Amino acid sequence: MKAAFEKMFGKIACRLAEEYAGDYSIGHFGYEITERDKGFFDLDIEAEMTLRRSCDDSPFIQGMKEALMFSGKRSTKSKIDFYSENISSYVGVPSRSVFPYSIHFSYNPKTKSLDPESSLLFFRTDVHDDIILDKAVRQKPADPVIERLNGYLFAREEAAEDRIHLVYPFAYDRLAARSWANANAYFRPEYPSKQVGGTDCANFVSKALNAGGIPADKAGKWHPASTWGGWAGDNWLRTGHYNNGGVVPYMRKKGYFRKEPLAARVFAGSILYWNKSSHVALVTHGDGIIIKFAQHGATQSKDTVLRNQNVSFYLPSAAIMK
After folding, report:
1. Which of 152, 175, 184, 193 could form a disulfide with 63 if both were Cys (CB 3.0 to 4.6 A apart)?
2. Which helix (H) or strand (E) holds 82?
3. Are residues 172 and 245 in the same domain?
């Protein structure tokens, strides 16, 4: 079986290098195998990735700049500056990236063992006590024409709206939230699965947002437990998936976060929400091409590259941003 794992690892490493060629330099590959059950093995591939594409070469930024030529609005320019600075912070900086996969080997009744030649490969997402498996298909690069148009339309929408900027008595530091999530990703979960009917993924995200400056709210039921393992507020402890409160609906209702349909606009400090499972994570990396997150799920992880696209993104509103 070791030879089969080595062969699979080599194929995936080559595929990843091909998928990200041009935008990143990628290397220093490694992997870890964990046996699950019934012929399934978890394969976590780690690589060092360095963004090479500058913000000036980003079709999304180019589209925004085209819109600025028409509007000349200061708000449009500030938006361009924000996204340009965000992308520039990643250019030339090596970062650890983890790609979770699962491999399934069929059972061969003749040899009474697993057959290395009949493997199936899946993208894996660890949520609750279970996993989400999606067939591992080659990832297509974003269409630069569409990305350019998205940037143009985004900037035009920003310029056209007369926004009423609410004043909040706090500021959200998205990078402080990211730092907390990365530093605490492998800490022991406060709530074991059996205690809350799932993992403490929402508790983890809520703590990160609170570390970023969003104040606890007793009346609004968004507050941590007073003692380790004690009961926190419903909105703090739940995701929002079951319509019984949760961190996502709370943040939206307060006007702190808004739903964002385009992955190219997602940046660190945003919330990642799984559409078909009660699970949330904190975005820790968003450079206009790839998104990474930290989570407390069936496993605790950080630097995980998002591959499952059946998710929603929630970005902090401009009104609370530091």
Report:
1. 152
2. helix 74-88
3. yes
Distance, in Å, from the CA atom of 164 to the CA atom of 277, rounded to the nearest integer, reads: 34
pLDDT tens for the 322 residues of the chain, in order = 788 888 889 999 999 999 999 899 999 999 999 998 878 999 999 999 999 999 999 999 999 999 998 877 777 888 899 999 999 999 999 999 999 999 998 877 777 777 777 889 999 998 876 788 999 988 888 899 999 999 999 888 765 554 556 789 999 999 999 999 999 999 988 887 655 445 689 999 999 999 999 999 999 999 999 999 888 999 999 999 999 999 999 999 999 999 999 999 999 999 999 999 999 999 999 999 999 999 998 889 999 999 877 899 999 998 899 8
Beta bridge mates, 216 = none
Letter for the amino acid at 224?
P
Q: pTM above the 0.90 mark?
A: yes
Q: Answer yes or no: are the C-beta atoms of 172 and 320 closer than 8 Å.
A: yes
CA 80 to chain centre: 22
Does 171 lie in the same domain as 59?
no
Domain boundary among 135, 153, 187: 135
Residues 307, 131: Cα–Cα separation, whole Å: 14
Q: Are residues 11 and 129 in the same domain?
A: yes
Residue 177 belongs to a domain: yes
Ramachandran region, residue 23 (left: φ > 0; alpha: ψ -120 to 50; beta: rest): alpha
- Domain extent, residue 67, equals 2-135
- Tell whether 153 is covered by a domain: no
Q: Determine, yes or no, domain membership for 158.
A: no
DSSP-based three-state secondary structure for 21: strand
Domain identity same for 125 and 240? no
Q: Check whether residue 102 and residue 24 sit in a common domain.
A: yes
| Helical axes 201-211 vs 174-184, angle rounded to 10° | 140
Residue 23 is classified by DSSP as T
Per-residue CA distances from 86 to 54, 63, 282, 306 (Å): 11, 16, 17, 18
What's the domain count of the chain? 2
